[in-house]
């Protein structure tokens, strides 16, 4: 009987912790077309944190060669900060745009209630012009300025969401793939002819 009471009390104590579960961002694995500007990918946040700001810091391929970020929208219609923000602050070079390591931030407007961290966090625009086909990392936790945060809480401590980082894959043009297959087939045909010639 005593054990059941202790277990029940323990479960009750866990309920507030579950209700206040941390916000989460799943970056996802996205496919981009080769040599194409203006490709937009949305980042969403889920959870029930009440936040008053956002520091969105991320790197593509560790900030090296990769799909270039040309725009980051965190305040327009549809985003969680729409209608309740102080504008977008873009950090100085090399964290400004265009970049593979952008850093932008905003805060909720003074006197307006905090924002629920649940919905569209940002729309990110990429340009793959001149970038080789391949798979590139997309990290919200590996920026020189620090990890992405959702502002600070009442104790002035940063709110860090649970982040699952992702990838960007640039695929070659279909015509390039077809040409590559034809080239491979041609090389194979030449090799077969040489073998037959040697046997003869």
Please give a handful of descriptors for the protein shown.
200 residues, disordered N terminus, alpha+beta, 14 strands, 2 helices, elongated, Immunoglobulin-like, single chain, 5-stranded mixed beta sheet
Number of domains: 1
Order of helices and strands: HEEEEEEEEEEEEEEH
Q: How far is it from the N-terminal to the C-terminal residue, by CA? A: 91 Å
Share of residues in strands: 25-35%
- The helix count comes to 2
Q: What is the averaged pLDDT score?
A: 85
Strand order of the largest sheet: 7-11-3-1-13
Detail the poorly predicted runs. 1-20, 175-182
Q: Describe the largest sheet.
A: 5 strands, mixed
**What is the CATH fold-level name?**
Immunoglobulin-like
Q: Find the count of extended strands (DSSP E, 2+ residues).
A: 14
Tell me the structural class: alpha+beta
| Architecture (CATH level 2) name | Sandwich
Dominant shape:
elongated
CATH class: Mainly Beta
Rg: 24 Å
Helix content: 10-25%
